DNA sequence: GGATCGTTCGGGGTTTTTCCCGGATCCGCC
DNA sequence: GGCGGATCCGGGAAAAACCCCGAACGATCC
């Protein structure tokens, strides 16, 4: 019995090339799609055994499409293709229900083999990724739920923003029209809440959490 | 007269698909290569009219290969293919002597047309890129050379990296096995060179210039 | 050999930050 | 009315950061 496949990729050359390769190796390429919405719609109608999903469709909507398809069609397995090395997206795809992962640098032989194994329900992962997924799982299991940010008051946030820009307590006091001792108190309580130790760590925290304005320290 | 083409890409599926597409459209695909060294060597022997060069070979060696080939073989034109949006690499490729640029999301028709025009000596640039190159040229012409980062010594860079992680002078001194006064001196000279005023600004500078290790301030 | 530069160490000073307090007002909530 | 939280102001003290200075050593270049 032939395996039905759907190819999703926004690069026409790649898409058609893969479709032809698979066709020549005995697969039934029922459909192709160039974007996430088309992929979801067509998959719903065609119900292929395997969806070959490119991860970097415009945006990272490949993940979204994977989620929709695996959610709606439990019989359909999604084999994710990626330009390799994009760890975050790949992990997202796995969470979204992808049955396997293959780098785009794979050969035709590897591709054909991977599609066969995916159709058979065999999870396909390149060497590096298995360890990556395991590591991520371990990380999640060990760190239960501490990632919720402590709540800063409005004033503390004001001060933090300015600290992250490199202003001293006196400069911040001038801007906010308060005493520099008050600024220092806000800094102190913020340090306690965030369990940090100095202004540099505060600045890093602000930058990583999008609290900074992204301006250059110098006059520009 | 047929146009001879060489295809350089580290993805076998893509490479062979493109080769086949071009072959079916009347081009003479003389050779393919998967990495920069092979590309240079084979191009030297084959002397194709057009080289289809993938920009993201391992590393950014696509630029290097482009430079070698255009330098050695003035008759051979290099048409660069890229996953799109990688402005820096594309500009590098243009500087390296590429005759044109095409995004990988192009259709087969566009590819065929682009190769024909490249062989005819007609520069091929997608809409966005022409403006990009012009803008870059204008920027270089107007701003002679003031945007170059001041040079920090190796030790200053070491200290900067650790400052950006939120360590105090004493902590840095312990790590580098020097006196904390020496650390403070390095901080001072770095502040002067970069025209900054305190450690928070140093941290921002380090982060924006990729000098930090991207670790969380807290224990994690 | 002399000049320059990077790296190291330190003196001596001011400013800022870090940390612990107490006290005040305002505002919402039980 | 009381209670807690947010905001504000301050004292005091230790640590750290900031700023300028000289000095020594080794390496490199002319």
From TrEMBL, chains A, B:
<dbReference type="GO" id="GO:0006355">
    <property type="term" value="P:regulation of DNA-templated transcription"/>
</dbReference>
<feature type="domain" description="HTH luxR-type">
    <location>
        <begin position="145"/>
        <end position="210"/>
    </location>
</feature>
<dbReference type="InterPro" id="IPR058245">
    <property type="entry name" value="NreC/VraR/RcsB-like_REC"/>
</dbReference>
<dbReference type="InterPro" id="IPR016032">
    <property type="entry name" value="Sig_transdc_resp-reg_C-effctor"/>
</dbReference>
<dbReference type="InterPro" id="IPR001789">
    <property type="entry name" value="Sig_transdc_resp-reg_receiver"/>
</dbReference>
<dbReference type="InterPro" id="IPR039420">
    <property type="entry name" value="WalR-like"/>
</dbReference>
<keyword id="KW-0805">Transcription regulation</keyword>
<dbReference type="GO" id="GO:0000160">
    <property type="term" value="P:phosphorelay signal transduction system"/>
</dbReference>
<dbReference type="Pfam" id="PF00072">
    <property type="entry name" value="Response_reg"/>
</dbReference>
<keyword id="KW-0597">Phosphoprotein</keyword>
<dbReference type="InterPro" id="IPR000792">
    <property type="entry name" value="Tscrpt_reg_LuxR_C"/>
</dbReference>
<protein>
    <submittedName>
        <fullName>LuxR family two component transcriptional regulator</fullName>
    </submittedName>
</protein>
<dbReference type="GO" id="GO:0003677">
    <property type="term" value="F:DNA binding"/>
</dbReference>
<dbReference type="InterPro" id="IPR011006">
    <property type="entry name" value="CheY-like_superfamily"/>
</dbReference>
<feature type="domain" description="Response regulatory">
    <location>
        <begin position="4"/>
        <end position="119"/>
    </location>
</feature>
<keyword id="KW-0804">Transcription</keyword>
<dbReference type="Pfam" id="PF00196">
    <property type="entry name" value="GerE"/>
</dbReference>
<keyword id="KW-0238">DNA-binding</keyword>
<feature type="modified residue" description="4-aspartylphosphate">
    <location>
        <position position="54"/>
    </location>
</feature>
